[in-house]
Amino acid sequence: MSHLSSQAETDMAVAWSARWQDFVALLKPRVMTLVVFTGLCGLLAAPGSIHPMIAFTAILCIAVGAGAAGALNMWYESDVDALMRRTAGRPIPAGRMNPDDAAAFAVTLAGGAVLIMGLAVNWLAAAVLLASILFYVVVYTMWLKRRTPQNIVIGGAAGAFPPVIGWVAVTGSIDPLAALMFAIIFLWTPPHFWSLSLYACSDYARAGIPMLPVVAGEQATRRQIWSYTLLMVAATLAPVALGELGVLYAATATVLGGVFIAGALKLRRTGQISDAKRLFAFSILYLFLLFAAIVADRLVLA
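RESULT FIELD:
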């Protein structure tokens, strides 16, 4: 009896120790920033009009849904997070938050985001939002990440949904440019994340996660980064070839793609960790600028 009482007191202490900053941390705000931005770009690039309040609601739902997916990821991976220096300070492995509280918080946010998206915007946007959450949590986090070095390749689809959701919020349909934005992020994810994994390799090895550098080695990873970079840059030029975007975007995509290719080639040749860090940092800026160019080009064409 005393043991049960002690356990209950411990659980209550953990619950009360969670601060509002810990709940924010569960949402992975850095990742959410990119998700919200690409979702907003999809919304702004879409043809037609949308009421500002509905647009705000759509973006808010994308943000909350992404945060909920991140929180569920942290809940499920708290055991491996505790083994990695990069993630050991997160709320659950650090002991500041009860896992059950984190899971309940995440599920509530996910359900609310999908329901409000459906009621306030449209149900196709809600369905795509739900698909993105389930893909990240179930397909990537629970199924792929601990089983295959291709986790990032297949799981990259999870991060590619936001511009499609933004587009569908306006149009109620999935059109060619929305599909191309999805493809760009899908192909961007491997070189982006494998650059990170090159200098976080020891963390992944310690946690038993079969990231590509752990399983195939650094040289093979650098080759894959190079290959996917070429595919990604080709995909970024497809909207121009198909007449979806014009000169402004074409010039931006060409310059940014050239810089990305140069960085990937340098990393392939040198194998220096500093070059991996540099490519990872640039990949984030690259996606922001590329999607900003999509919106700017569409506004010019309009």
